[in-house]
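Re-run with default settings, no changes from the original entry. Doing this only to confirm the output is reproducible before filing.
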Amino acid sequence: MQKDVQNKLYEVLNNYIPKRVLTNKNRGRTWQYGYNEKYDFVNISKSGQVGQVIKIAGLIIGLPLEPKTCYARSKNKKDQYWERTTLPKSLSKIQSIFQWNDAPKEFKSRWVDYIENEFDKREDGFWFMNNGVPTYITGSHYMYLQWTSIDVGYPDYREANRIFFLFWEACRADKRSFGMTYLKIRRSGFSYMGSSECVNVGTLAKDSRVGILSKTGSDAKKMFTDKVVPISSRLPFFFKPIQDGMDKPKTELAFRIPASKITKKNMYDVANEELYGLDTTIDWKNTDDNSYDGEKLLLLVHDESGKWVKPNNILNNWRVTKTCLRLGSKIIGKCLMGSTSNALDKGGNNFKKLFEDSNVEKRNANGQTKSGMYSLFIPMEWNMEGFIDRYGMPVFKKPKTEVQGVDGEMIYNGAINYWEAEVESLKNDADALNEFYRQFPRTESHAFRDESKASIFNLTKIYQQIDFNDSLITEHHITRGSFSWKDGVKDSKVVWTPNPRGRFKVSWTPPAHLQNHVLEKRGIKFPGNEHLGAFGCDSYDISGTVGGGGSNGALHGLTKFNMDDAPSNEFFLEYVARPQTAEIFFEEVLMACIFYGMPILVENNKPRLLYHFKNRGYRGFSMNRPDKNYIKLSKSEKELGGIPNSSEDVKQAHAAAIESFIEKNVGFDLTGTYREADVVGSMIFTRTLEDWARFDISNRTKYDASISSGLAIMATQKHLYTPEKKQSKISVTFARYSNHGITSQLKR
């Protein structure tokens, strides 16, 4: 099932909060700003009332209640859109709070409501009519649109940025969150949005520090001097604290005395008013693993975090700077991080890990993600310059009639059409194409697309398959879940239970009559469905390592060609995880084998899994190495089964098995050798595909998914490795590919 290209960036959750509860609490205005544990959502409304509940990137957010009336620039629907209002000329002449204090009472009476209103919008956000739709923007977004001067004047309103700021406000409100990491397209405006937020936070907070980091120290300095300082200096006087030092500082903005909020109560009596120092600074640091170490930060803006190159490491830096945002267990500051990604070996891999560790749907016992931040990705078609209409909405496909853009220009093409044309023009230059994908990604896998030269496999086919998988609604093809013993009784029947937090990903389960098909011979249990398929496993022996590291355990299930009630030559199960103990992993692997009734091929250099099978009576499930006759096996191989990982022949055969599978079952078969040329392969486990793309035969230990999937392929094709009578070595070899051009070329 294909995704709709116009799927929204967020999902509206109707009736998420029981209607009666919502009504009663809204009437009493008792909703608290922040994370609501009872109903598991983050409320960003400051009025005590909650309106629409939405989900963005897995995070459930409660919006303010829609007001009875919304600001509209016109009664005509088509003329309703965001429009910045200019500062009244009379107020533009006032440069400081002191000039305001000296102004006549009549003048202040005329403008105090306007000023109070601006403070309210800054605090609570703003509602306006947009093409007939009541639309809410946060206070930070309002400050960005209304009062942030950028290189082209003032920012355009974009729906993508509205979603960004809603998500950011939720990160600010959520006591469990250290902030957000934003995977973006080139020229999305993040640097200006981050700079605007630096100024917004820094000109409100007392006794605080706001910091800036980028891919280099000079980039951080440039962001500070070219963006932050001008934005601050151009704020209207009522938002601008008294600044200590130079008008255009190079290293630090220091606010020693604040601008007092002007109200009707204090507008007349200023003579006895005592002004206190704000003592807040905004500064930047050189790029280093220990930047801001030991500092206390209210806000850290991290620009171009996907482009940190050696010796600097964004992961190491985050481990240090994260401590600057907390006091004990209490989070006192937030990080706003955003970037496109470099190639994986040029800083992109570390950012990818940080982004994946920020998935809001994967939390620890404290309710936090592994990184502490929340991740957000917005596809290129939502934020591409030149394809945003005057309502801030993207034009995806070529319109039937011309559409007026937000810049006043007419739009004749669609963002997706433009993107597809660029991809077509770069198809003969693989590395240029991958760079374009990283700069303008439509999927997360595009954003982390690697350079092609490093892969030993047919990268063209792998990326074709990944792109196809990205277009699928995966929930219709892959189910997460867990295996367990029926009624908790070991060695009885194994039960499969769908569970969104389960460690197994499964695309096929056998019909009831094939489940738990176990045969017993001489007191040893054997798989009853060996004709249908087999498993491959990359195991580990030690539960934990110093510092909590260690590779994952991996398990893959693959079917053979068959005429039974099962798919042919398809991976149906993927498991890549490291449970709390090795014993849990062993038991989960065992249960999967029993449920499917299929044998397993395991590398025997880490034998505890094999002992687990033997000691429980399942030695018959553990396959012997297929490249040797039984009589040639060592004593331990006869006892446990398994295949060594030290043999060069085995390594070559393992890589060759993956290569052959890719050629036959992954991506498009343009020659029509194995299937119709326009039919894409059936390998839907993207994590494994990405592991194949990066696989390094000289350093196999990092590639858990590749090891286990390759063993699964070898297990289903064991006849290929059966030695001839006078031959003991594996004769299978694998080719190497040059991954330049539209297709990978076989190296001769």
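The two ends are 40 Å apart (CA to CA). Residues 6 and 137 are 21 Å apart (CA to CA).
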